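Summary for the steering committee. One of the milestones for this cycle was to obtain a three-dimensional model of the protein with glycinamide ribonucleotide bound, which we needed before selecting residues for the alanine scan. The sequence and ligand used are listed below.
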Amino acid sequence: MNINIAILASGSGSNAERIIEYFSERKDIHFPLIITNKVDAYVRIRAEKLGIPSVFLSKTEICQTDALLQLLKDNNIDWLILAGFLLLIPPQIIQAFPNRIINIHPALLPKYGGKGMYGMRVHEAVIANHEAESGISIHYVNEHYDEGNIIIQAKCKIDKNDTAEDLAKKIHLLEYEYFPKTIEELIIKN
Ligand code: GAR
């Protein structure tokens, strides 16, 4: 059976690239497109290098029209993977893809989640609170930011002198290790 995955990303897209590389040998798993809400996001350069079309949809198009749903239908998408995608997913998309939308969050939810908590902001808050550990949460997406059921979490230690940038590097390593294989396990099971 062929599976079509759409990746949604707003920024650099390093996770998107790792995921696509991880599945590159699989003939049954396809990435027809990467969708972004930032016209100049670096993920679009990565997409071009990987030979995958990237499609820009504005926040208004995503949140107030059915452009995203139509695009997903036109490309026969089965799964949505949010890899650094910063907009709330509209309810009609969640209803159309029940338990088929997966997000990665760079902290141990429910801590350090919610609206406005993304990327470096998360790591800065974790460091400011002198946490001894942080980690990643891979979870299903529902109508609220970072509140869907958690699929897996993985942790890393924070050293006393770690900066937010140091923590970001540790978190990215965890993401590269866990995100692609977790997606693979979910696809196989479902
Ligand atoms: C990742 O660390 C991801 O967990 C985070 O954005 C980064 C994207 O990096 N996502 C969020 O903060 C979502 N709330 P990348 O563009 O290099 O993959």
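Key point for the committee: The domain at 104-190 is CATH 3.40.50.170 (Rossmann fold).
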